[in-house]
Amino acid sequence: MALIVHKYGGTSMGSVERIKNVAKRVAKWHKAGHRMVVVPSAMSGETNRLLGLAKEISAHPDPRELDMIAATGEQVSVGLLALALKAEGLDAVSYAGWQVAVKTDSAFTKARISEIDSERVLKDLDEGKVVVITGFQGVDPNGHITTLGRGGSDTSAVAMAAALGADECLIYTDVDGVYTTDPRVVDDARRLDKITFEEMLEMASLGSKVLQIRSVEFAGKYQVKTRVLSSLTDPLCPLEQEMRSGTLITFEEDDTMEKAVISGIAFQRDEGKITVRGVPDRPGIAYQILGPIADANIDVDMIIQNQSVEGKTDFTFTVGRGEYQRAMEILKTSVQAHVGAAEIVGDPKVSKVSVVGVGMRSHVGIASTAFRTLAEEGINIQMISTSEIKISVLIDEKYMELAVRALHKAFELDQA
Amino acid sequence: MALIVHKYGGTSMGSVERIKNVAKRVAKWHKAGHRMVVVPSAMSGETNRLLGLAKEISAHPDPRELDMIAATGEQVSVGLLALALKAEGLDAVSYAGWQVAVKTDSAFTKARISEIDSERVLKDLDEGKVVVITGFQGVDPNGHITTLGRGGSDTSAVAMAAALGADECLIYTDVDGVYTTDPRVVDDARRLDKITFEEMLEMASLGSKVLQIRSVEFAGKYQVKTRVLSSLTDPLCPLEQEMRSGTLITFEEDDTMEKAVISGIAFQRDEGKITVRGVPDRPGIAYQILGPIADANIDVDMIIQNQSVEGKTDFTFTVGRGEYQRAMEILKTSVQAHVGAAEIVGDPKVSKVSVVGVGMRSHVGIASTAFRTLAEEGINIQMISTSEIKISVLIDEKYMELAVRALHKAFELDQA
């Protein structure tokens, strides 16, 4: 008898019919003898509807009040799912984050979980109840409702699994697992049976938006066996089959993994590249350039600083395309003169393509294979950034699909 | 500088535009130097939408989960209103019932408030904040969310005013006060400037559905000066004018009131009358008849037991018309044989008309005036029930409007 956490996304909770299907699936697991905790998202469209109302009232809504408003979407979901579970003949009870309690810091709209009380939930499980808990939200030390930011329900589910010492956390979503790359770009992209949490981390942060990145961090940190699988299968399909479907995110590299050098090709299409040219190469210059960008709440992705020539250096970084214009303005108005830069240049139409795999650690020549593949396709590499388990290149947006397909083939990811 | 509680109904909160108007009105009061607490209802239609979802999932939804779901409507409202108040330049903060805390018993969907902590709210008020608190809901001793039942936001507002020692509780609604009777029935029905809470209690319970009856009980018990007034006036109308508008529910009978013998004519159109005939007149018979009705959660209104003849008596009571059929079935299947009644007869098409006024206490002849008026119109009285400040008669439904108009005129309610 295992303790299992299920997480269902907004699409899976998108209608009364679908909620009933979720209940059927959970009931199947419960009847097989498992202790079940379920974390559902808000019904699809609901969070947008609520935030839309807030935006209509205020162009810059107060984050605390936004959380108060947005948190209701998940509260409705847990209540409805508990009702559906009861209709399936199970004993079920729903909790909002503050009732459990899921404790967070006070960073409204992007709070981080600090601690989860498990006592109440474990007691309910001991009594044979299915416990349904709101994702996406918690309560801060002052008793204010907080939310974890978009996709936060994944994090809630994994954190809950960690707090409860669950045997596995199953993330049900509208894709059936993690692929070697986006199947919309490469026809023969293949579903991975397993992936390490580190690889998943790179895949997630690089745009394979199957799981919220913080949920993967949690899975790694607390060694939570997490599985991504489809909510679109027949809810009454055999349990044994369902238990082996999807992609398992593991925290240990086993033998199987050694064989696969590369797990996948991730990409981020909508990037913008900005270069601050001819800045004096002195301590603190990176902070002087990126500080104002961070203050404006703009996420910076790749950062490269060239070797300096005659005491001057070029400083290049990328941002999401939607923030490109704003970042350029900040640099031109508040940074250029201050740091004594020669000029600010940029390109709003670049994409990042990354080769990801823990196998890289023990295999040489991955980088050169990647670079040769791109060269053979005539694709110019604008920036390179590497980590232990990934190589990312920045290229002209128009070559993105071509690069992904070529790399997918070069690393034989189409072959099981 | 007074402490004022405002309550706004679902219609007043029905759209972004209306919520902004509420904020403008509250801002006007705040700028005049008052300490403001606001209790808004869910946006109109929202509670029905939520309960509709629940009903789609389960024909007999669990009340605890219903409360979990329904309570979100008000939570959205407080967040939106706090945003709108901030947009007006005020410092505002919203709270759900459990955050205040509004403590209730555990009777889900019809909980009663047991205690309200005022510390947190008073602290915010001291800091110059406008405090926005969810109506309709609270938290039980086990930390479960409860709701107070339909119209419960009125009760929340009055209870909050009592807990805070507020100077006045203003209930903004889509009517501009309490009338001598329903203006849809009697053209020259007149708005009352004042009414005692006891009269209001009779008016409310008799179908003048301006205020939830429990809110009036609270107002009486804790002597909260409560005013019912329109939310449809210009939100920026002069404060002095607004402070004198609507109907004030007072807890003391002042001189003005002595003059008005009767305050109004209330009525309840949809009643059903049931008579259990020929039951042995022995102790416990009323309980044996009404016990099973109460167990079925059917509210009984008027109850009359006739003088017994030869040890047998007739027992008559009224129920809401919607419950008439069910009540008849219960009596025929579970009660008739058990109590040895001769027969069960009924009439599902009766209405109750009531003459209400504290002046009745010190004036004689009110009943005879009422009975004479009805007789002159040829209206047969089927049942009579009286209290210190009201006389109710049950009549054929088809005469209801005629009876109300005739009594309204007979007691000169059309004259200021």
TrEMBL record, chains A, B:
Keywords, ordered alphabetically: Amino-acid biosynthesis, ATP-binding, Kinase, Lysine biosynthesis, Nucleotide-binding, Transferase
CDD domains attached to this UniProt entry: AAK_AKii-LysC-BS, ACT_AK-LysC-DapG-like_2, ACT_AKii-LysC-BS-like_1
SUPFAM superfamilies: ACT-like, Carbamate kinase-like
Residue numbers binding substrate: T47, E74
Domain of life: Bacteria
Keyword match Transferase: yes
Molecular-function annotations in GO: aspartate kinase activity; ATP binding
Location of the ACT domain: 274-349, 355-416
Keyword Transferase part of the UniProt annotation: yes
GO cellular component: cytosol
InterPro entries associated with the record: AceGlu_kinase-like_sf (IPR036393), ACT-like_dom_sf (IPR045865), ACT_Aspartokinase (IPR054352), ACT_dom (IPR002912), AKii-LysC-BS (IPR041740), Asp/Glu/Uridylate_kinase (IPR001048), Asp_kin_monofn (IPR005260), Asp_kinase (IPR001341)
Catalyzed reactions: L-aspartate + ATP = 4-phospho-L-aspartate + ADP
Pathway(s) where this gene product acts: Amino-acid biosynthesis; L-lysine biosynthesis via DAP pathway; (S)-tetrahydrodipicolinate from L-aspartate: step 1/4; Amino-acid biosynthesis; L-methionine biosynthesis via de novo pathway; L-homoserine from L-aspartate: step 1/3; Amino-acid biosynthesis; L-threonine biosynthesis; L-threonine from L-aspartate: step 1/5
GO biological process, one term: homoserine biosynthetic process
Residues given in the record as ATP binding sites: K7, Y8, G9, G10, T173, D174, Y179, R184, K209, V210
E.C. code: 2.7.2.4
Family assignment from sequence similarity: Belongs to the aspartokinase family.
Protein name: Aspartokinase
Species in which this protein is naturally found: Pandoraea thiooxydans
